[in-house]
Design brief:
The chain has seven helices and nine strands, in the order αααββαβαβαββαβββ. Helix 5 links the parallel strand 3 and strand 4. The N terminus is likely disordered. By secondary structure, the protein is α/β, with parallel strands linked by helices. The strands form two sheets. Strands 5-4-3-6-7-8-9 form a seven-stranded mixed β-sheet. The chain has a two-stranded antiparallel ribbon with strand order 1-2. 34% of the residues lie in helices and 26% in strands. Helix 2 packs antiparallel against helix 3 and helix 2 packs across helix 4.
Length: 239
């Protein structure tokens, strides 16, 4: 690319970014958020009142880059940098409902991303422990969460495949990236009668799965087909 094309490209990116920011400043986020919950969450069968209340409260636009904030309540995932995305609102809703948590629950999240799912969980349970493999995302999510004063959310940078054994067992575990099979450390760290919600499968064939631990064994239920980024280790290799 010659220098003139390169300059034009960056000028275009800058204009698009400013336009997105300008549109975002004119939007009524609360109205859009409640519309999102009504049309994307409740209309699709998510009926847990506490999940609905949490999604009405947590400001999704604060968890996406400013140039995409005008799209924050759209029915789609959005880029959050580092090749990662924030999940479609419906997926956040259904995964949260499947966890079946309460105000006394301790939850482990694998794949912090922007921190939006963690914030939803923070509205619903006692403690949330969340792990992110991408250092830049982990730092950014930590900054966002701290700015919102969630004192029950605990974030760290690390390999989610290994879980967070120090605080196990967990009442529920949610995984927002997709391995080819269920990580044994997560099975071990799930408490009795706990729920594990995870997308698993080959690259182009993934299923959102609910697993419940009963008498030390997992009972599996396939929920819906989904698309998620792969679970990776610190060297970028897929599990």
């Amino acid at each position: 690319m010659n220098k003139y094309l390169l300059i034009s490209f960056f000028l275009l990116v800058g204009v698009c970014g400013r336009n997105g920011e300008a549109r975002a400043q004119k939007m009524n986020y609360k109205q859009l958020r409640h519309k999102m919950v009504k049309e994307q969450i409740e209309a699709r069968g998510i009926n847990d009142k506490d999940v609905i209340k949490a999604m009405q409260k947590v400001e999704r636009h604060l968890f996406v880059p400013i140039q995409f904030r005008h799209l924050a309540y759209s029915d789609s995932p959005l880029p959050i940098g580092f090749g990662q995305t924030i999940s479609q609102p419906y997926i956040v809703g259904i995964m949260t409902q499947l966890l079946d948590i309460n105000p006394d629950s301790k939850v482990l999240e694998i794949g912090t991303g922007s921190g939006y799912q963690a914030a939803i969980l923070g509205e619903l349970c006692k403690e949330v422990y969340s792990i992110e493999i991408v250092e830049g995302l982990a730092l950014k999510a930590k900054s966002t969460i701290e700015s919102l004063n969630y004192d029950n959310l605990h974030l760290k940078w690390g390999d989610g495949y290994m879980g967070w054994e120090e605080h196990a067992p967990y009442d529920a575990i949610i995984v927002t990236c997709s391995p080819s099979k269920i990580p044994q450390p997560l099975i071990d760290q799930l408490g009795e009668n706990g729920n594990l919600v995870i997308p698993i499968g080959a690259k182009n064939v993934k299923s959102l799965v609910l697993l419940k631990k009963i008498d030390g064994e997992l009972v599996r239920k396939d929920v819906i087909p989904v698309r998620f980024v792969p679970m990776i280790d610190e060297k970028g290799r897929e599990y």
